[in-house]
Amino acid sequence: MISNFIKNLYISQKYLWVRQFIKFSIVGGLGTIIDFSIYVLLTRFFLFWQENFLWANLLSISISATLNFILNKKWTFKDHSKKIFSQYIKFWVIVLTGLLIYQIIFYFSSEKLLIYDILSKIIAAVIVWIYRFILNKYWTFAK
Length: 143
Fold this sequence. Notes:
Blueprint: H1 2-8, H2 10-14, H3 16-45, H4 47-51, H5 53-76, H6 84-112, H7 117-140
Helix pairs in contact: 3-5, 3-7, 5-6, 6-7
């Protein structure tokens, strides 16, 4: 249903990258919900993770990133390549460099600018979102 709606949008019929960006955003949104849910669960209910919120953030992002790889490969970019291992490595290079950028923004905004941690995660997520789309489209799942 969602896939058909996206396909029928005029602009996504004309430009494949628009359709892919919309799908990438949906997958990312799902991943973000999973990421935030795990992060909030850990940091609000467990003292260890409250004191180690950057590690909680790393764990929550790692879990959601693996789901994102699978959905982006199969649904967003409709990639049928058998190079799953090399793609997964490329994907994780993007995840890790994105995570580094994400963590720097997250730390700086929450610790130095004293922005609420959830708002800091939103700021970091939006910035890294576009970076990940471009690299995944043109490097990880390039045809």
